[in-house]
From TrEMBL:
Organism for this UniProt entry: Fructilactobacillus sanfranciscensis (strain TMW 1.1304)
Record's keyword terms, sorted: Cell membrane, Membrane, Transmembrane, Transmembrane helix, Transport
GO terms under cellular component: plasma membrane
Taxonomic superkingdom: Bacteria
SUPFAM superfamilies noted in UniProt: MetI-like
The protein, known as: Oligopeptide transport system permease protein oppB
Family, as annotated: Belongs to the binding-protein-dependent transport system permease family.
GO biological process terms, semicolon-separated: transmembrane transport
Regions crossing the membrane: 99-121, 142-163, 183-205, 241-266, 286-312
Lineage: Bacteria, Bacillati, Bacillota, Bacilli, Lactobacillales
Name of the gene: oppB
InterPro entries noted in UniProt: BPD_transp_1_N, MetI-like, MetI-like_sf
Localization per Swiss-Prot or TrEMBL: Cell membrane
PANTHER family named among the record's database cross-references: DIPEPTIDE TRANSPORT SYSTEM PERMEASE PROTEIN DPPB-RELATED
Membrane-related topology note: Multi-pass membrane protein
Annotated ranges, domain ABC transmembrane type-1: 95-305
Amino acid sequence: MWKTILRRVLIMIPELIVLSILVFLLAKAMPGDPFSGSINPKTSPAQLHRLMAANGLFDPWYVQYWHWVVNLFHGKLGMSYEYQMPVINLIKQRGLNTLWLATFTMILTYAISLPLGIFAGKHEGKWQDTIIRVFTYITMSVPFFVVLVIGIWIFGYALGWFPTSGSISPNANGMGETILSRLGHIILPGLLGALFGTVNIVQYLRSQVIDAKHSAFVKTAVAKGVPEKDIYRHHIFRNSLLPIAAFAGYSITGLLAGSLFTEMIFSYPGMGQLFLNAVNYRDYTVITTLVLLYGFLNLMGTLISDIVLSIVDPRIRIE
């Protein structure tokens, strides 16, 4: 398996090179520039021309791309035009916030969806199953941003239980207060994101549990007198996890990329909000870096999903 993983990693290199060229060209093809209106509305065209020339924006695209790649290998991703700070430092700050939110959301998602999916499949056709299916249908039919707006209005403004913006309170002092403040800021968006993210997992898992219940190996185990809890633990649950494991890598890397809706509605300074702001302000250095990072995360998601799938079912080996 290690040879396969190494081969897949090597294949990623030309894919990332092609992706970087496409991303760089598309970013340069965007209308506008990063300086007009962002420094001073009264800035003269001559001053804007000097700024763009000093930043190499008039060089041929391949020259700009070559300079960008050389700096990339030296750990220099350039300066953000809008935030006036190194892109690497900007991504570190926002990436840490997204990591907190993504980890919390992922834990809640699987903590909620796995028991619900198994419980619904175990009680197929009964009132317990009906309640869970109604919950999934309602959640699926309501747009995610509507759920976020309603949640922030009820629990943030009306009840005042949770903060409605930011990632940490400015009054937090010390490590303990900082951690508690971070948790307080991610509970509401993480919980809403987890409730919305459970829908597909619950439905997949419920279907797999129902299929496994009627399979021949389960019927054989029942005929042999194996206790029901052992049947669900060792036979049904393990086999039902296969489709869930197939999407695990994509779910992890997708959350790390940041949720655009969640971060914008909650004014949460993460990767998703950073990307939208970079597009609005034509911050080319940030755009190219983030899209390349997202592409890398997607490739890693594919690899992680295959590895997790082979761990869950040893009969499956990635080739």
